[in-house]
Amino acid sequence: MSKNRSSIRILVADDHAMFRDGVRKLLETADDVEIVGEASNGFECTKLLAQLKPDILLLDLRMPEKGGLGVLEEVKFDSLLTRVIVLTAADDERDVVRAMRLGARGIVLKQSASDLLLKSIRKVHDGEIWLDGHMTGQVIDTFKKSSESGQRQEKPLLSNREKQVVQLAAQGFRNRGIAEKLFISEQTVKNHLHNIFDKLGVSDRLELVLYAIHHRLIDQT
Description:
Helix 4 (93-101) links the parallel strand 4 and strand 5 (106-109). This protein has ten helices and six strands; from the N terminus they run E-H-E-H-E-H-E-H-E-H-E-H-H-H-H-H. By secondary structure, the chain is an alpha/beta fold.
């Protein structure tokens, strides 16, 4: 199948050749994504990242020599256009939280349905955060234990404007972008975020988005 010129360029890093082959066959069915490289360990991954500059890195957490967490620790993804989706066979929420703290934008269980992998790629490429539904609750519980924030409300009362701010933050917009979208000042956005953090008992934007996903404050369909 021919690919569009604007296809999402993907690098796959996983030590199992059969899994990489399965991912390749899956992505070949879509005309808006293409695999531009494959790595079998973290060292190959970091080398190919610099050479290929992919849009999306599908990164296995468990690889010999250097795993996915090692790649995330070494590479400063905040300064790259590449967005990372972590692939994991184990639902260890501590590793997942650490991966997201290190810059991963999505988490997908390897046993998830194939359509969810494609959906996660498109969502993360668009700037959103994707977390496998089976793990969301566990990850939020881990954030609760590690956070110094106060106890969260089960049913936080957010204003309509605050909900709009949460939705835009979840889509990857920074303060300036949120301000432009809502026709308000950046300072007003900061004030809204301060109030939202206080109401929800979260400590940063990542925790805010994960909490919002878990409590269906935003739509992840």
